[in-house]
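Hey, resending since the last one bounced:
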Amino acid sequence: MGKPFEALVARMLGGDRGALAKLITLVENRAPERTEVLSRLHDRFGHAYTIGITGPPGAGKSTVVDRLVGRFRAAGQQVGIVAVDPSSPFSGGAVLGDRIRMQSHFLDDGVFIRSLSSRGSVGGLARAARDVVRLLDAAGKDVIVVETVGVGQTEFDIVRLASTVVVVLVPEAGDTVQAMKAGLLEIADIFVVNKADREGALRIKSELETMIQLRPAAGRRTPVLLTVATEGQGIDGLLDAIAEHRHFLTRSGAGAARVAAGRREEFLAILRDEVSARVESGVRHGRFHNLLEQVEHGDVDPYGAVVKVLADEELRRALMAPPDSGAGVR
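The structure tokens again:
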């Protein structure tokens, strides 16, 4: 194998968890070879089923994930978990906010857990989350659970990544429900009211069901389930609802449409990332030094400068030079 990463890819495909971890670090750090790695593995994508779990802090998402993973493992399925941390990059002591909650699976070779930093992504998902899901898929996971933080009008990235999106709320989340409006309702394939042994659980369930009735029909009615995840109550029902939604996606053709839309969005996202990286590299290497000086001095307006870059063949070549190549014009 001619390239260093090829040995890692071969080891990962052979079941080496350490190689998988190193490749995840490579894509999370936006290493230049990440695009080639993922392109090399593309034919192995599409086996895993991806479930997104989102909701406000304190809703018990991690416990719901823990209980679901237990069911998947009991069925003999290989599971990957991607937890998106809202603040800090990956560290050994921060998985799903509290590693203790995942203690029962942490030493299970059939479960691979990775925490990622959202790094300011407004949708709650790290840029690298999509690539990490692809690696877990290629590594042979049957189910991948992506847990994201927060819930609000900007929490839409998850719908582009997961086949089934579960929104987890608690009985005290009345204000959250009022703030949802149509946008978040549309991304939820399943609602879960967790900690349903608390007062108000039936009320918020009723409110959610009323809101669902008011939105246009989508071929199925979004279920609203009650769970007490700490006790394992309602988890089997949630598992059934996920299976029902997966069947619906296959039966209706909505799954194929979602996959096609996801591929389109993935292509555009990768293209934006690559172009952005090359522009930043060009600025860092002074490829547009003279033009930037003209903009800074007011000799050329920013809009005119962009038009000039796009119209000038030499500047375009400098723009599209690989990151950190140092090629280009001044």
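Residues 254-284 form the longest helix (31 residues).

Sorry for the duplicate.
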